[in-house]
């Protein structure tokens, strides 16, 4: 009864560890968010392990089914659409619920890519301390989220989708303690159209608007001076 938490590429299919491939080949089942997305990776590495979908809308029945497989002694691997499962994705709900159901469950990390770490690694801001805030809330608590940034002293990392990246950068401009800081926005890391924007928020907005606003984004904000 083992649950492996397996990091997979955030774009470039070569960014996977030998251990991750080995685990994905040998477990009984792979739990994945979007089966079509994971299928591309599995086909690329000729992995024939059967998959079970598990995503943010999965019902308790699905979690119980996964718990039953583990209880029967099966070994499972959890992957997400990209990066490290459980980091700002539905993985950690599954981990917390299965831990509650199965006290003896062995959970084993298979580390690898994560967009937060990839972005931090090239930001050039201090990273001995940083705070990762995931996605800003869309409606309720959005104002509070931005207001609270005034109190954070460390390098800040935020995830954002193409639909809200400009809105979020605009909202950052309204945060007095952050508005004049340097930021780095990483778009489509490890992919064909990887783009890195650096400068103050106004400059980065202008640069992003010059191209197609597509893909996935990480925003890194320099710490308070
Ligand atoms: N668990 C994943 C990880 O370890 O990075 C993150 C999952 S979260 C649902 C998806 C978000 O991660 C995207 O909206 C984007 O903010 C960020 N992300 C994922 N892949 C990325 C990439 N290749 N380039 C930039 N950001 C990425």
- The CATH superfamily of the largest domain is Tetrapyrrole methylase, N-terminal domain
Which stretches are low in confidence, meaning pLDDT under 50 for 5 or more residues running?
none
Cα shape: elongated
CATH architectural label of the largest domain: 3-Layer(aba) Sandwich
Q: What number of domains?
A: 2
Structure overview:
With 225 residues, this protein is α/β, with parallel strands linked by helices. It folds into two domains: 2-110, Tetrapyrrole methylase, N-terminal domain (Cobalt-precorrin-4 Transmethylase, domain 1); 115-221, 2-Layer Sandwich (Methyltransferase, Cobalt-precorrin-4 Transmethylase, Domain 2), CATH 3.30.950.10. The protein contains eight helices and ten strands. The strands form two sheets. Strands 3-2-4-1-5 form a five-stranded parallel beta sheet, with helices on one face. A five-stranded mixed beta sheet has the order 6-7-10-8-9. Helix 3 (60-71) packs across helix 4 (91-101) and helix 7 (165-173) packs antiparallel against helix 8. The longest helix is centred in the N-terminal third of the chain and has 12 residues, at 60-71. The site of S-adenosylmethionine has 23 residues, from helix 5, strand 7 and strand 10.
